[in-house]
Design a protein that fits this description.
184 residues, mainly alpha, Flavocytochrome C3, Chain A, domain 2, 2 strands, 41% helix, disordered C terminus, binds heme C
Length: 184
């Protein structure tokens, strides 16, 4: 099996775990009082916190951050009217980290797709993809997108990953890697 394929499978499984646990967490109900043992997936999410786009901007300013600013994702919070910004039923897909760590960041920020960054954002982790992914970084696949791009959205226009993931209205530019990926 090729290394790329193996990585893809690992990412997919991780994304499914995180997706499932996000769906399980109802923001309106306290989860602490269920009395049931935590699932592994819930723990995996709880381990990492959202740090917000300004942290990512520190190092990704010139490249991804600048082009992300021009996407619909960067403006997703402003698409809501003030009264809609108070409704969980709208906020959940127009913000980042609402139902995992209980932190609310406005708009569809970096971590909505790449996972909460408290652990992977360090220089040492970021330079080694394997370390970064162990620290919670996600290489987004379709599973990440369809948490929001689904028919629960009142404005759902359908979702085709191949098309949408190349559409500059939603995707930041990706740039050639500056450091060599660790071969192992
Ligand atoms: C399940 C996730 C989800 C929920 C819940 C959700 N949205 Fe959205 N919203 C989206 C997505 C994804 C898009 C992008 C449209 C597309 O390509 O399907 C969008 C687009 C929009 C737009 C841009 C206009 C357009 O037609 O593209 C507005 C305005 C909007 N949503 C308002 C709301 C309001 C108001 C609510 C609450 C009543 C809400 N959304 C709830 C995911 C969601
Ligand atoms: C809507 C989801 C989404 C958001 C939001 C998003 N990204 Fe990405 N990002 C992606 C996808 C998809 C890829 C491509 C992954 C791949 O090719 O394996 C990617 C790739 C990357 C890469 C790797 C580029 C390369 O050369 O391979 C970096 C770095 C990155 N994103 C940083 C960011 C930063 C910083 C932000 C916030 C400013 C951000 N992303 C916001 C989806 C997103
Ligand atoms: C946290 C929720 C969320 C996630 C995750 C997410 N999106 Fe979105 N996406 C939105 C919302 C909300 C909008 C509409 C924002 C607006 O119009 O103001 C949108 C808009 C878009 C648009 C522009 C659509 C249009 O017609 O204007 C594209 C393209 C897109 N997303 C692609 C993706 C891809 C590809 C992924 C996964 C790599 C992804 N999105 C992940 C919520 C999300
Ligand atoms: C201390 C600087 C720094 C911070 C802060 C940082 N990054 Fe990075 N990031 C890097 C470096 C360096 C690379 C490797 C770049 C390369 O190879 O071109 C990288 C790579 C990435 C990649 C691509 C990984 C790969 O190998 O495919 C993604 C995705 C990414 N960062 C997302 C983020 C997100 C999201 C945040 C905020 C939560 C963030 N980064 C914060 C320095 C940083």
């Amino acid at each position: 099996m090729s290394r790329k394929l193996l990585i893809a499978i690992v990412v997919l499984v991780a994304a499914m775990f995180i997706g499932a646990s996000l769906m399980a967490a109802d923001p309106e109900k306290p989860t602490k009082t269920t009395g049931k043992p935590d699932t592994t997936a819930t723990k995996a999410v709880a381990k990492f916190n959202y740090v917000g786009k300004d942290k990512c901007k520190l190092c990704h300013m010139k490249d991804e951050y600048g082009s992300w600013l021009t996407t619909a994702h960067a403006k997703a919070w402003e698409a809501l009217k003030p009264e809609e910004q108070k409704k969980d039923s709208c906020v959940v897909c127009h913000s980042t980290g609402k139902d995992a760590a209980g932190v609310l960041l406005t708009g569809v920020q970096c971590e909505a797709c790449h996972g909460p960054g408290s652990a992977y954002k360090t220089q040492a982790n970021m330079k080694d993809k394997k370390l970064a992914m162990n620290a919670g970084m996600i290489e987004p696949t379709k599973e990440v997108c369809v948490k929001c791009h689904n028919d629960k959205s009142p404005n759902f226009k359908g979702f085709d990953f191949d098309k949408y993931s190349k559409d500059p209205k939603g995707m930041h530019k990706t740039f050639p890697k500056k450091t060599e990926e660790k071969k192992g």
